[in-house]
Amino acid sequence: MKTLVVVSHPNIEKSDTQQFLKASAVSLSQVVWHHLDANLPFDVAAEQQMIQAADRIVFQFPLYWYMAPASLHQWLTEVWVKQFVYDAHGGLLKGKSLGLVVSFSQPESAYQLGGQVGFSLSQFLAPYAALAEKTGLQLLTPLAIARFANQNDSDHQQLLIRYQQYLTLQHPDNFEAQAQWFINRLQEDPKTTMLADQLASQTDEIDRLRLTLHELKAGESE
Fold first, then answer.
1. For residue 100, what are the CA distances in angstroms to 32, 57, 73, 160, 213?
2. pLDDT digits (tens, 9 = 90+) for 106-148
3. Residue 61 above 90 pLDDT?
4. Is 140 within 8 Å of 100 (Cβ atoms)?
5. Contact (CB, 8 A) for 35 and 5
6. Distance (Å, whole) CA 60 – CA 34
7. Nearest 5°: phi and psi at 83?
8. Using one digit for the tens of pLDDT, what is the confidence trace for 170-200?
9. Keywords assigned by UniProt (predicted)?
10. Are strands 86-87 and 90-91 parallel, antiparallel or unpaired?
11. pTM reported for the whole predicted model
C-alpha cells in the first residue's frame, strides 16, 4: 500500500511533533512525506499525479484556531478540482482511503462536550468527512496527538508504533492487523524470531477463544 502524507505546517523545522513524525516514517519504503509549505507555488499536475499514485492519503497538521494551516486549504482549492476528484457521477478517488493526523497542545479531554474547548475533535474535522464523501474516499478514524511536548519516552514509543501502523495497515484499528504488524517486525530480527512465534501463537489462541464465545452466544439465542 502506497501512502502519501500531506503535511501542512508553516514552521515545520521548529515543530518537535512534526520532526518526530517525519523521523518515524523514514524507514517506511511505501510512504511519501510531502510538506506543502515547501512546495509553493503548487505544480498542480505533479500534485495530482502524487494523489493518483497513492492508495492512502493522510492530511497531517496542527490545529490552528481549530482549523488546519492555510497551506492545506490552498492545496485543496487548487489541486482538488472538479473532474479530478469528483464529477457529475460521483467521487473519482474511490478505492483510496483518507487519514487525518492532527496535533494540538491541549489534553485530548479538552476536545469533548464539557471540556475546556467545549466541542469535540470530530466536530472540527467534519469538513474532511464531507470531503471524503464527495470524492469517494474511505475515511479512517483520525489519529489525535495531544500535548506531544508533555509526553515521556514511553508515550513517544507508543506514538511511533501507532503512527507507523496508521500509515501502513489497511485497517489500522484492527487488533489482528496490529498483532500481525508486531509479528512481522519481530520476525525481521533473528534475535526476536522466537518471540514472534509466541505472539503469533497467542494471537491464534485469542481468535479461537473469540470463536468459542461467538458460538456460545449463538447457542443462547437459539
1. 15, 9, 14, 16, 35
2. 999 999 888 999 999 999 999 999 999 999 999 999 999 999 9
3. yes
4. yes
5. no
6. 10
7. 80, -10
8. 999 998 888 888 778 777 655 445 444 554 5
9. Oxidoreductase
10. antiparallel
11. 0.85
